[in-house]
Amino acid sequence: MSRSLFFTFIISLYTAALSAQIIIPESITIARDAYGVPHIYGKTDADAAYGLAWAHAEDDFESIQLNLLPGRGLAGSVQGKEGVLFDYGLKFTGLDTTVPKLYQTDISADFKKVLNGYVQGLNAFALKFPERILHKDLFPVTEIDILH
After folding, report:
1. CA geometry: angle at 79 spanning 103 and 58, to 5°?
2. How would you classify the pairing of strands 29-32 and 38-41?
3. Stretch 51-62: mean pLDDT
4. Burial class (CB in 10 A: 0-12, 13-18, 19+), 103
């Protein structure tokens, strides 16, 4: 391996490590008030996003999944003909290719950290409650899935 290729590889690994953060769920507090509204406390914005994803999933995991399915082209397999329209619509508009490109160029590093926190929270919920997953190929989700 040439030195420049090795250097590029090391920089890529370092950049990936910086963008992925370790979230400790035990350090996040979700307190619901008398009306059931979640108040989420964490040390970072990514921690709060993790807690937000968990609270969203507690409240309506099915709707979250129904919104994620077309991004993977899976809505038809869960919702039948109605779902196929959503799968087709996403392909027709080109969002399936535009969103990943724009994620790389137009999303700030800070916002990527928040998205990553949300994704980790949603995936953790799915892992804990696999019986609530609507389609076996939906999880784990990615930041791109959330943006679709």
Report:
1. 65
2. antiparallel
3. 98
4. middle
> 42-76: b or e for each residue (b if 16 or more CB lie within 10 Å)?
beeebbbbbbbbbbbbeeebeebbbebbbbbbbbb
89 or 49, which is more confident: 49
Structure tokens at 61: 């995991």
Residue 75 has pLDDT above 70, yes or no: yes
Mean pLDDT computed over 2-8:
51
Cis-peptide, bond into residue 100, ω within 30° of zero: no
Of 26-40, 49-63, 79-93, the poorest mean pLDDT is in: 79-93
Q: 105: which residues sit within 8 A by CB, 6+ positions away?
A: none
Is residue 52 within 8 A of residue 110, CB to CB? The reply is no
CA distance 122 to 29: 16
